[in-house]
Specification:
The chain has 276 residues and is of the alpha+beta class. Helices cover 14% and strands 32% of the residues. The chain binds a DNA duplex (20 and 20 nucleotides) through loops.
DNA sequence: AGGTACCAACCGAGCGCCCA
DNA sequence: TGGGCGCTCGGTTGGTACCT
């Protein structure tokens, strides 16, 4: 459990409905009891989140979790909750603090057993060995190089047009499990094409034509993109705005980290590569 | 208010490269 | 060597700012 000073400080700042989750003996984070939305929260915000909730964390990542009723209790769906647990590498001594922000939105704070709050994406300690439920085949190694065209190691359709590789693109990611690809800026930057190997490998799904996605940029900045399908290939307009705003030049590299809700693509987190 | 110029975006066509 | 894929190119369209 957290030190009392930390608890007191949190509670001082809390005027909205909130609750804690930490493990009791014999439980693990994927126990069904950990997926329950406390009745007092449901009761205090009637109708606010009958179908889904969205958890947002300090490092501007978020997870959408669908809800299901079981008897009188409201549970987060197992698959969604397990993904949240895996993504954040929750350990037995961790504590979660949930604050109901707005309608279906919760702000989530993750504390380690010493009361230290995680402020950035938790890194997986042993990336190579821990099995992950949606980890793709040919999972990335830290030393992987990725061609600028977006093809990753082991891909059969990869083209090597710009053979200056970005070393270790995973180090740019907020969440190492997220799909990602490397994009080289060209003089035609009206749309950002999605990498097909990444789409297939992660079985990514897209919203309807003209639905919006977010370009999540450094410093918490955000630009809106529109989903298009050119030649059957999904891509996002609004990319030119990003290139202009951040003064990207032809030949510059960016690591595009795909944000998902389930398998549905909701945004592209853009990491500017500076390897020179 | 209407005309013009400029710019950004749309999207089909086609090029270049890799693999079987 | 042909087919498929990833990507760029370029013509067209639509929106906006500026000028008269």
């Amino acid at each position: 459990m957290l030190p009392k000073s930390v608890v007191d400080k949190l509670q001082e700042n809390v005027s909205k409905p909130c609750f804690w989750k930490s493990l009791s003996p014999g439980q693990n984070w994927k126990s069904k009891s950990m997926r329950i939305i406390p009745e007092k929260i449901v009761g205090s915000t009637p109708g606010a989140f009958e179908h889904r909730v969205v958890f947002s964390v300090r490092w501007e990542n978020s997870w959408q979790l669908w809800l299901e009723r079981d008897k009188d209790d409201l549970f987060m769906q197992e698959e969604d909750w397990n993904e949240f647990v895996d993504d954040n590498h929750l350990g037995p001594n961790d504590t979660l603090f949930f604050r109901h922000d707005d309608t279906m939105d919760f702000e989530v704070q993750i504390f380690k057993n010493n009361g230290y709050e995680i402020m950035d994406v938790p890194l997986e300690v042993e990336l190579e060995t821990e099995p992950l439920h949606h980890k793709p085949q040919n999972s990335h190694k830290e030393t992987v190089t990725v061609s600028a065209s977006g093809s990753e190691n082991g891909g059969t359709n990869g083209r090597v047009r710009h053979r200056r590789d970005v070393m270790n693109p995973m180090r740019y990611l907020l969440n190492p499990e997220n799909p990602h690809f490397v994009k080289v800026v060209t003089k035609r930057n009206d749309v950002l094409y999605m990498s097909r190997p990444v789409i297939h490998r992660y079985r990514l799904k897209f919203g309807p034509l003209h639905s919006t996605i977010d370009f999540l940029l450094p410093g918490g900045q955000k630009e809106e993109g529109i989903l298009r399908f050119y030649n059957g290939q999904p891509c996002f307009s609004g990319w030119s705005v990003v290139c202009r705003k951040y003064k990207l030049n032809v030949g510059d590299y960016v690591v595009c980290e795909i944000e998902r809700s389930g398998s549905l693509v909701t945004g592209v987190r853009v990491h500017f590569v500076n390897e020179d």
